[in-house]
Amino acid sequence: MASISALHIEAKPDEIAETVLLPGDPLRAKFIAENFLENSICFNKIRNMLGFTGIYKGKRVSVMGGGMGMPSAGIYSYELFNFYDVKNIIRIGTAGSLKEDVQIGDIVIGMGACTDSNYASQFNLPGTFAPIANYDLLHKVVDIAKEKGIKFSVGNILSSDIFYNDNKNSLFEWKKMGILAVEMEAAAIYMNADRARKKAVCVLTISDNLLTGERLSVKERETGFIKMIEIALLSIL
Ligand code: HPA
Asked: Does the Cβ of 165 fall within 6 Å of ligand 1?
């Protein structure tokens, strides 16, 4: 019988650090490795979902693409937590704002992640599970954002299965519950972390304002992303 091992990550056991930054876009992972890490090696090329391990300010860290949506982020976070010695995943990505005072370019840290996905059904729980960030990681990223003087909001986000939703009101129903922003991955990563007794947190840059229709410009996308990368990287030290 074949031994149980990761199907979507080809890294050798010791090639992945204990903390992994998980952007959705594998080219973003490459950008981070090339611009922020020293001596990085590429540990995954399966499906072009690039993953790298290198050194940031003396500490070993990995960065890997996780794809779009909970099925994809669920696969990669599951394999990282369960087939490698990964203890922490810091999701970094973009989100659409649902709150007036959460503006384009702002940082949102997902304390909790509501979802319209069925992902939790696999756990057979006799009720509703509340996917939340790990408190230690949450505390760290908040401390770093404060130290750096970066504007941020911490609270509940929505991880949605649907980007192009036929029901145009659905996000406004979430908004009435105080949801700060919508993205598509955090809830699955939080659930996988809890199930594996590991840690996860999600740090987002607001790229779209869903109330006004405003979007981050190409230039602003870059600088916004850099603030978020720095928060994530400094929190591993
Ligand atoms: N919906 C879901 N995910 C997103 C959005 C959005 O509007 N913007 C950036 N990530």
From this structure: no
